[in-house]
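look at this stuff:

>
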Amino acid sequence: MSNLLDAPPAIVRSVSRNQQQLAAWARVEKELMALPGNRWEPSGLIHLFAPGIYIREIHMDPGYVLGAQHKGEHFNIILKGRVSVYMDGEWRLLKAPCTLRSGVDCRKFLLVHEKTVWQTVHPNPTNETDIEKLEDSLFVFTRHYLRERAKWQASKLKEGKR
């Protein structure tokens, strides 16, 4: 696991404040997705709903996480753990309990130092509960990510048929 923690910061550091755009993050995403140990499914993702609100709660082990580009403002709540997060052109060390606000088009890269529970809180005015529809309305996914995710999903289906 230490090679995963060593490699990504150098890749992410190459994204300057002026390059905070989808094209720059797509390059970083492509490099990270090629690293050994890349996971497609979060180890613990919980979806919570209340009238007008959608919360994604992810339970993360030490390692790295590159989040999707968010289409709208939202809150992030760290309930447990400690992470270094790269956002808005700089690194920040965050420790639970912590709440921060992310703007439109924000994309975060995390180095998870210890088991962490992170929530993102999104408006859900239509009270949608279909996760795929919610993700499409909340996030921007790169073509590369969508292509690689489809390949991964196909391989998982193949494995299930054996």
Observations:
- The CA atoms of residues 8 and 32 lie 7 Å apart.
- The chain has one domain: 2-151.
- Residues 143-161 form the longest helix (19 residues).
